[in-house]
Structures are given as structure tokens and as C-alpha cells.
Amino acid sequence: MIVETDGYIELVQYLTAQLPLFEQSKKGVETADYSLRELFEEQLAQKIMAVCQQQDIPQEVRLDVVREADAVLYDLEEVLSSVLENKPTPEQEQFVDEFIGLVKNLFDDKIHQTISA
User: Fold this and answer.
1) Domain of life of the organism in this record (predicted)?
2) For residue 23, what pLDDT is reported?
């Protein structure tokens, strides 16, 4: 669905380019009570539920969306494996929110293309 598209590949490359944001140790900066892994999982789950609720799609497509979301999470874990247990800073949280929003946009666009075809 989306993980083999050029848009998704560019998005993963963008994430990779932003690794310094996650690898910096921020002394004295307030961090969250949860890990980056939990933040990514929560944000992705919320966006995927929104995709499924906002679109009138058959159950089969919903299952494809969930499978793709699992693949996205796997890719995120691969790219960010060394920092996933860190507590995110506000700047990192903002990045995650924007990044997962872009992933949602890819899903929305692909579903719209599928329904329109």
C-alpha cells in the first residue's frame, strides 16, 4: 500500500536525516514520562484509527492499513533502535507528531486513490 511508494521511502530518508535530533543528550531539558517507542506507537495508533474512521473503506482495506502500519512501526524501530527507550524532549515530540501526520497523509492519499480507481 504505502511502504513501497516513493513518498514513504523519502519520508524514511527524512527521518534518517533527523537522527541527530534524537541522539543528542539534552541535559536540563524536560522530558516526558514515556519512551520514544511508546510515543511513536501511540501517535501511529491514533492516526491509523483516524484514517479508518474518516474513510468509508471495506474491512479488507482496513486490514491492509493495519498491516502497513505494522510495517511502518517496524521501519521506525529499525531506524531509531538505539534511541527508542529514551524519554522524548518537547522538540522530539513535535517532530514525531509531524512525522506521523505525514504518514497519515500517505495513507489518506493511497486510500483515496484506491477508492477512486
Assistant:
1) Bacteria
2) 82
